[in-house]
Amino acid sequence: MSKSFDLLVDGMIDALRAHVLPKCSDDFARGQVFSIIFALNGLKLAADWRAGPLLEELQLQDAAFSEVRRLADKMDHPPIPATPRVETGSTDPVRLEALRDEGDRQLGELLFWATSGSTRAANYAAAKEIERAVRGFMRAQLKVEIGITAKSMLHQIATGEEQQR
Amino acid sequence: MQQIKRSDDIVHTAAGPPSCKIVDDNVMQAALAVHLGKKFGNEVEIASFARKSSGFSWITYSFVARSPSAPDRKLILRVGPSNGLFAPYSVLPQVYALQSVARTHVPVPGLVTFDQDGAEVGLPFFVCEHVEGDVPAPWAASLLDEDHRRGIAEQFIAILGELHTLDWKATPLALLNGAANERGEVGAIVTWRASLARPTARYYPLLDWGGRWLEENCPVPPRRTVVHGDYRIGNFLEDKQRITAILDWELTHLGDPHEDLAWALMPTFNAGSRKFYGVIERDEVIELYQKASGIPVSRKSLAFYEAYALYQAAAIQMCAVRAFEVDRFNDMRMAVMATQMASIVRAFDRALEAVA
Fold first, then answer.
1. Chain A residue closest in CA terms to B210
2. pLDDT digits (tens, 9 = 90+) for B53-67
3. What pLDDT is stored for residue A48 in this prediction?
4. Which of B160, B212, B215 is nearest to B187 (CA)?
5. Position A1 pLDDT exceeds 80
6. What are the domain boundaries of chain B?
7. Cβ contacts from A onto B, under 8 A
8. Of chain A residues 118-137, which have a CB less than 8 A from chain B?
9. What is the C-alpha radius of gyration for chain A, rounded to an integer number of angstroms?
10. pTM for the full model?
């Protein structure tokens, strides 16, 4: 179970208990809510965060690290982790999520470094190339996350009404 | 997860940890009666007390204040919850804004009373007059006809021009934090950067890096004006094809007028359309605004503030994430706001490319 999955399921159950049940006076409807809470508790035990997208993001980060290592050759740069960071067959979402988050921080440091005045002064062409590469891999990573994002329901969430078509 | 007693209403209780303080509607109603009684020097009965909206930030109630010696008054109470989206809250930006524009052509509800310390209520709050009107939803295509929307859009732009020409130095807005800072618009970016720097589960490097870029490349404003801070479809009331009140002044500050214009033009607030309110092309919006305000619009500054608008949108989403993950605000709307982060960060990155 990943930390974010756990938090999300707990939040759903908490919101149903705190916000929905107190406003729900119909016995049948209350039974439906309790059934959903029961099902969510079951999901917590049985389901898991999908490892596939996390692995895809980690591969993109690894590719970014390799590219920066190549471009920053002989430059004084922040630490770049050895790649690949995940052994074949690893599917533990807690570990993958932690590695992804750590990778984001390390790539952030590299981007700040590449766009700093001192790095640009040392090797402008390489610095610009690193910036371009890192931002490109970050964009690709965002695309993976967008691919697993449900369509926005902001109107319904904010107004409590179905969107009229 | 922390187990605490919760109800649909936020129950103000000294027993819970500060981040989980909740407000009970009944307690709120009784406390308000005490406050208004002192304010009006009369016993006040609070009738028809009801939560009015399901906003993401301030809690809004409508009610009728009844006293033996005066006619009934329909009023609005707005309370800043201790665990809301932008907690801890200050009523002062809204109070100063309502006081400052009260005698201008910018329509606002009349301010009745406020209390930053919340002596009786326990939380910062203010009370204003009820204004008739409906709030148009910004996220879905409007069912109103085009002529109707065009009329509203033109009024909306004209009011923005009026706001930006206000001589704020002679108003309570001069008391705002940072009013003495000549580069106050940079201060707004710094504030969001600080908000994003607070620990949360996810770190978005492009957002962090882009925030620094904004801070370092913030243009000098053509004129330092009042900035509403959340000027968009959905933050005003309209009645019989007239805008009757501009609402939600909580992000009011002094800065660059391009900020309000860029925020209002965001497709998110125009049902996904690049046209303002789905009816007015951007070029025409700029033309109408320039005519109304006399302030020349710089395309470069507008592009900068379009990037800034996405940065602010991302920062607001992260406030929601933090409220859910860290402060354990048990509102699932906060949790799901996080799911849109990747799209916003990507749009922000594209906007940065456009302005750089």
1. A112
2. 666 788 899 999 998
3. 64
4. B215
5. no
6. 18-129, 146-355
7. 102
8. 135
9. 22
10. 0.87
Fold of the domain spanning B18-129:
Phosphorylase Kinase; domain 1 (3.30.200)
Please check whether residue B281 touches A, CB under 8 A: no
Best B346, B349, B350, B352 member to test A by mutation, with max A CBs in 10 Å, is B346
Residues 64-123 of B with CB under 8 A from A: none
Name the residue with higher pLDDT: A15 or B65. Answer: B65
Q: Residue A104 is inside which H or E element, if any?
A: helix A93-114
Low-confidence residues of chain B: pLDDT under 50 = 1-20
**Cβ atoms < 10 Å from Cβ of A87:** 6
The radius of gyration of chain B from alpha carbons, rounded to an integer in Å, stands at 20
Least confident among A76-80, A147-151, B306-310 = A147-151
Nearest to A18 among B6, B143, B206 (CB): B6
Whether residue B140 and residue A155 make contact (CB cut-off 8 A), yes or no, is: yes
Kindly state the helix (H) or strand (E) to which residue A156 belongs, with its residue range.
helix A154-159
Q: Does residue A154 belong to the interface with chain B, where contact is any CB pair within 8 Å?
A: yes
Q: Beta-strand (E) ranges in B274-351?
A: none
Whether B50 and B38 have beta carbons less than 8 Å apart is answered as no
| Contacts A154 to B, Cβ<8 Å | 139, 268, 340
Contact check, Cβ <8 Å, A115/B209? yes
**B146-355 to CATH, choices 3.40.50.720, 2.70.180.10, 3.90.1200.10, 3.40.50.1820:** 3.90.1200.10
**Nearby residues of B295 by Cβ (< 8 Å), 6 or more positions away:** B161, B164, B165, B222, B223, B225, B257, B289
pLDDT at position B54: 60
Mean pLDDT for the stretch of residues A20-33: 86
B contact test, residue of A24, A33, A155 with most B CBs within 10 A: A155
* pLDDT (0 to 100) of residue A2: 57
Angle at alpha carbon of residue B163, lines to B157 and B168, rounded to 5°: 165
Q: Does B330 touch chain A (CB under 8 A)?
A: yes
